[in-house]
Amino acid sequence: MNENINKIKMTGSITMLKNRLTELLNIEYPIIQAPMAGGVTTSKLVASVSNAGGLGMVGAGYMTPNQMRTQIRELKQLTPNPFGINLFVPNEFEVKEDEIRTSNQLMNGFRDELGLPRKETMEIPNSNSVYATFKEQIKVVVEEKVPICTFTFGIPPKEMIEEIKKQNILLMGTATTLKEAVANEKAGMDIIVVQGSEAGGHRGNFMEEDQESLIGLMSLIPQVVDHVGVPVVAAGGIMDGRGLMASICLGAKGVQMGTAFLTCMESGAHPVHKEAILNAEGDHTVLTRAFSGKWARGIKNRFISEMQAQQDKLPSFPVQNSLTQDIRKKSGEQNNPEFMSLWSGQSAVLAKNQTVEALIQEIVEEAMRIRMN
């Protein structure tokens, strides 16, 4: 452990960051690495966060149950400390052939440029098969006794929540509004992550309309804290000790950070993705549903710009996400940032290329300086 951290510990000041959240999660610092799906949360990244005193999280939204089980067992070998896993709660959706044809017609121009075959139709998993996979994912979490399980895009059914809690697994829900936060608490969530509009990646809204869920984090935290009894975790645009302390001052018990960890050396993010964030300016992120059919924040590129006027014609998540998969994959293979989903929060300009340990050290040291002043 870094000498400066040891000095802070010796003064006893580090105990100022201990609270109900750190006790519940059995972690040293109230810092959670956001569960970024799509390959970012490698075992190395997750274990490094947990080993450095935070909570590492696996973004398992797109993983098969077998892939989940493999990574969970790998993590148990890499860290003795708690880690968590995040799942997407399936929502009802329709697979409409006319929407698929329309979207593919729009996508084929990009496929031509990338040297991909054109497509007219495509087999898309239906709601029933997606939900069946979700149930299998839950089964893996229970069988492998993962300490913490978090959810995005909704709340699981009551009987599922009860089954997980019987195994003494802590549950965390995601909310973008007060209404969603209250619903999470009533459903039995032990901790609620409030996602401000500054957050990178997909919006976690599930009860409110897209525009109504775009509440800034500094406004959302006190609203939720005043109306729920469980610990609140702040997420969205937080990159350093200033963001941590600001969130705590408003009543949050900790923070969840995505973009800050995405550019760390241990992250599995594509080098082009990391480079785009590290070179971003303050106004480079926008909200788009062109990649997946669900609103998400990322760095603006050609794909987002050219699809901006066509977004209303696109199918919803996860259908559109399946339709753009070949484009995103090929773009990555060609190191072409123009057709990749470069998810990022609004504070990308503060991102650094460093180790997880260095990042957490900086956050804690800065937070302590603020606290002691």
What secondary-structure arrangement, pairings included, does this model have?
Blueprint: H1 3-11, H2 20-25, E1 31-33, H3 43-51, E2 56-59, H4 65-78, E3 83-88, H5 97-114, H6 127-143, E4 148-152, H7 158-165, E5 170-175, H8 178-187, E6 191-195, E7 201-202, H9 217-225, E8 232-235, H10 241-249, E9 254-257, H11 259-262, H12 271-278, E10 285-288, E11 296-299, H13 302-307, H14 319-323, H15 325-333, H16 356-372
Parallel strand pairs: 1-9, 2-3, 3-4, 4-5, 5-6, 6-8, 8-9
Antiparallel strand pairs: 7-11, 10-11
Structure description:
The protein is of the alpha/beta class. 42% of the residues lie in helices and 13% in strands. It has helices at 3-11, 20-25, 43-51, 65-78, 97-114, 127-143, 158-165, 178-187, 217-225, 241-249, 259-262, 271-278, 302-307, 319-323, 325-333, 356-372, and strands spanning 31-33, 56-59, 83-88, 148-152, 170-175, 191-195, 201-202, 232-235, 254-257, 285-288, 296-299. The chain has an eight-stranded parallel β-sheet. Helix 4 packs parallel to helix 6 (127-143) and helix 10 (241-249) packs across helix 16 (356-372). The longest helix is centred in the N-terminal third of the chain and has 18 residues, at 97-114. It starts with a helix and ends with a helix. The mean pLDDT is 94.
